[in-house]
Design goal:
single chain, 310 residues, alpha/beta, Rossmann fold, eight-stranded mixed sheet, 13 helices, 42% helix, globular
Length: 310
């Protein structure tokens, strides 16, 4: 019985900035998106939810593991002043479909290129946070013609588990608990554990307001989320095998932003990526942890705008 409870609690602790299923109107807890119209498009038979506004060179924003498009809520208006800002929920996350597939890195990259094709975007600046930065790296390596420039925010290093400082994320990436058990644990106890889990991702816990916690907790209740997350976690060795060894061959101009207080991947991890990527610039964001674009947008957005200018 104790082993059962450890698996259940370990699994639910691992789930972080939550997500949902197939697109419908933006839920009321997404109020920070200023009621931007939600769009969807079919990619290989699966519905992908996204936001698309502004005019100019396209910029694609990719959220991290267990996250959703709301991680980019503070970039929408700022970037749309000069760019076409496209913010998607990845397959298996947010308001997008969650099919029972393997969620291998190469599959997710194919969905991303299919998504760009569906929107008739031959090339874009790619911005990724955490695992989203890993997918951005994958696009730059396997589809370099689709990536005009690259912005990596707190991710993703080679030898991920060796650099990982977050206990909850480590459990998420290594748990052997079945998805149904994790879902039950989340249903029973998720609301109680959510705040302590999210505290690993921010520097200032005061930002975890009741509204933010409610939004994240509601997102976690959507069917299929945990199966997708657990499946993604089991594929980490494929990232290490197929992409991590080639990070040093990235040729695109690259900006690396890192929260100075990141406890998921400490700031020295960002310095390592900077050493590996030849055409990279490394900037540390003070008073920010793993999602600096959400926690310190007034510091992050000017760096994004300067770098993205042609």
């Amino acid at each position: 019985m104790q082993a059962f409870l450890r698996m259940m609690i370990g699994g639910l602790l691992s789930m972080t900035l939550g997500s949902c299923t197939t697109p419908d109107p933006l839920p009321p807890w997404f109020d920070s998106f200023e009621r931007l119209p939600l769009k969807s498009v079919m990619v290989d038979g699966q519905r992908i939810a996204y936001l698309d506004h502004g005019q100019g060179p396209p910029v694609l924003l990719i959220h991290g593991f267990g996250g959703s498009m709301w991680q980019w809520e503070h970039q929408q208006s700022a970037l749309a002043t000069g760019f076409r800002v496209i913010t998607l929920d990845l397959l298996g996350a947010g308001l997008s479909d969650k099919p029972e597939i393997e969620y291998r890195p190469d599959q997710l990259l194919e969905f991303l290129t299919g998504f760009l094709d569906a929107l008739q975007i031959p090339q874009a600046a790619i911005v990724g946070n955490s695992m989203g930065a890993g997918l951005a790296i994958g696009l730059a390596l396997d589809h370099p013609d689709r990536v005009s420039s690259l912005i990596l925010i707190d991710g993703l290093p080679p030898d991920v588990l060796a650099h990982l400082g977050s206990p909850s994320l480590r459990r998420a990436l290594t748990t052997q608990a079945p998805s149904w058990l994790v879902s039950v644990g989340n249903w029973l106890f998720g609301g109680r554990m959510l705040e302590s889990t999210l505290r690993e991702f921010v520097h200032d816990p005061a930002l975890l307001t009741p509204a933010v916690l409610d939004r994240s907790n509601r997102n976690r209740q959507r069917p299929g989320l945990f199966r997708a997350l657990l499946t993604i976690g089991t594929n980490l060795p494929l990232w290490e095998r197929d992409f991590a060894p080639r990070i040093g061959t990235i040729t695109q101009r690259t900006l690396i932003l890192w929260g100075e207080e990141d406890r998921v991947f400490p700031v020295k991890t960002g310095a390592l990526l900077h050493e590996l990527i030849p055409k990279s610039t490394f900037i540390v964001i003070p008073q920010a942890a793993h999602i600096p674009q959400w926690e310190q947008p007034d510091r992050v957005n000017p760096h994004l705008l300067r770098f993205l200018q042609p």
